[in-house]
Amino acid sequence: VQLQASGGGLVQAGGSLRLSCAASGSISSIGNMGWYRQAPGKERELVAIITSGGTTNYADSVKGRFTISRDNAKNTVFLQMNGLKPEDTGVFYCHVDYIWYKWPRDVWGQGTLVTVSS
């Protein structure tokens, strides 16, 4: 199973970006899908997560600005980021929990860089 993330880039403060992450490969079913961020010199942290049933959870720092969604038919998760701030800068990684035949597995995407200029 592989994840292909896209949508990162350079944007001015207050701007918007939409990240996408598509899963491909031998997947029986997909569970949670999430986005994590790693800022320069910091540890990777959870930004947002969405369950298979559509329940969402966000880091306090992005509530009201970011929206996570998923397209189950396309095994894709999205992150709509509005009102971006310089402190949002970092590499964004998608993460997916899935079932491979009958065994639980998880996989990370390759990361996409988001840079927010002030």
Q: Describe it for me?
A:
- By secondary structure, this protein is mainly beta.
- Helices cover 0% and strands 60% of the residues.
- It is built from no helices and eleven strands.
- It has strands spanning 2-6, 9-12, 17-24, 29-38, 45-50, 56-58, 66-71, 76-81, 90-100, 103-108, 112-117.
- The strands form two sheets. Strands 2, 4, 5, 6, 9, 10 and 11 form a seven-stranded mixed sheet that branches. It has a four-stranded antiparallel sheet with strand order 1-3-8-7, with no helix packed on it.
- β5 and β6 form a beta hairpin.
- The termini are far apart.
Overall structural class, as computed from helix and strand content, comes to: mainly beta
- Computed CA radius of gyration, to the nearest angstrom: 14 Å
SSE string, helix = H, strand = E? Answer: EEEEEEEEEEE
Give the averaged pLDDT, no decimals.
96
Number of DSSP-assigned strands: 11
Shape: elongated
Task: Give the strand content.
Answer: over 45%
User: Which regions contain 5 or more consecutive residues with pLDDT less than 50?
Assistant: none
The major sheet is characterized as: 7 strands, mixed
* N/C terminus separation: 37 Å
Portion in helices: under 10%
Instruction: Specify the number of helices.
Output: 0
Which descriptors would you attach to this protein?
118 residues; mainly beta; 60% strand; seven-stranded mixed beta sheet; single chain
Tell me the layout of helices and strands.
Elements: E1 2-6, E2 9-12, E3 17-24, E4 29-38, E5 45-50, E6 56-58, E7 66-71, E8 76-81, E9 90-100, E10 103-108, E11 112-117
Parallel strand pairs: 2-11
Antiparallel strand pairs: 1-3, 3-8, 4-5, 4-9, 5-6, 7-8, 9-10, 9-11
